[in-house]
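Q: I'm writing a short explainer about Histidine--tRNA ligase for a general audience and would like to include a description of its predicted shape. Could you first generate the structure from this sequence?
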Amino acid sequence: MPTSQATQTEARRLRDLFAARGALVIKADVLQSAGTLLDLYGEDIRARSYVTSDPLRGEMVLRPDFTVPVVQMHMDAHAEPARYTYSGKVFRKQETDEARANEYVQVGYEVFDGQNPAAADAEVFAAVAQGLEGLPLRAATGDIGVLMDAVRGLQTTDDRKAALLRHIWRPARFRALLKRFGSDQVPPARAALLAAEDPFVEAGPEIGLRTREEVTARIDALRADADAAPISGEEIALIDAILNLRETSTNVLSHLRDIAVDMPAIGGAVGRLDARLGALADRAVDVDALPFEGSYGRTSLEYYDGFVFGFYASDRPDLPPVATGGRYDALTARLGQGRVVPAVGGVIRPDLALELT
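A: Of course. Here's the predicted structure. Afterward I'll give you a sentence or two in plain language.
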C-alpha cells in the first residue's frame, strides 16, 4: 500500500525533530528473523504477524515493529549512552478489526541510558509530546513494573509466580490463573489424573511430539501445584487494588505508598514512579493532572516492563493510539545474552497525527 506524500513529509519532520535531540538516524530491514520473535513471544506472535519463508535465511517475518531490531543493533554496537530515531512501515495483522490498517508508518525515538532511568523516561515522553504538540490528544500512563514486582512478592511457589508473570500481557488468562491459585479446589478431571498411580495405564499409543518423560514431568508439576497453599485473599485484594488504580499520577503515588505498607515488594517500583514524576515535572509536564492506570499497557507486545504511555485522540475514540511507548530493560537482557542496558522508547503514527490537524 503506497504511503501518501503528506504522511512521508510528516514522518520526516518527526524524525528530524528527534535527530535534533541527538538521535542517530538508523534503518532496519523489513524482513526480520521469525525465530527471534518466536523465542521472545512464543507462537502467539504468528497470529499478529506476516510470516514467510526464505530459502537461505529460513522463516522470516515482515517487521511488526522497530524495537527488536533496534535493540539487536544496539547490543551489538556496545555504544552507551545512545539515542536512535527511525521511520518506516510496520506490518500487523488485524483479524478482528477491519477498520485498522495492517501496514502503516512509525517514527520512533529510543534512548539507551542507565545513568538516570527516570530522566530518560521523562525525556522520551516529552519528546513524543513535543512531536504531537497542538493536537487534540489525551495522555495515558502506567507502570508494568509495579504489577510485576507485586507478583514476584506473592507468598506462593516460584512456578505460580512464573506463570502469572508470563501472562501479565494476557489479562483474561492472568485473572483466571490468579483465581485458580487463590483456591484450594482442584478440578475433578485433574484430581482424577493426579490420583492415578500410573496415569499411562489407559493412555493408548504414544503420539505427538512430547515424550513420556516430558509428560511425566508435567504431571509431577501439577501434583506439586495441587499441594501448594492457595494465595491469600489479602494478597489477591492487593493485586486487584493495583490493577484497579485509575487516577491522576500524584494520587496514584499516594495510593501505592499505602499498598506498599502491606506489600513491601512494590517499594522499589513506587520509588521509581516518584522519581519519574519528579523528572516529568522538571520538563514542565503537569503531573498533578497526568492520568495513571494500573492495568495500562497489558495488551501491547510483551516487552514493556516499566513505565508505559500513550497518546489518544480526545474526540476520536475510533482511532488507535496516535503514539505509544515505554521502558523495556528486560528485552535488552534477553537479546544481549544477559547484558542489561536500561532502555525506553516511543513511536508516533504520522498518518493518525495528520487526521487530527
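A: For your explainer, you could say: The chain has a mean pLDDT of 89.
Q: Perfect, that's easy to follow.
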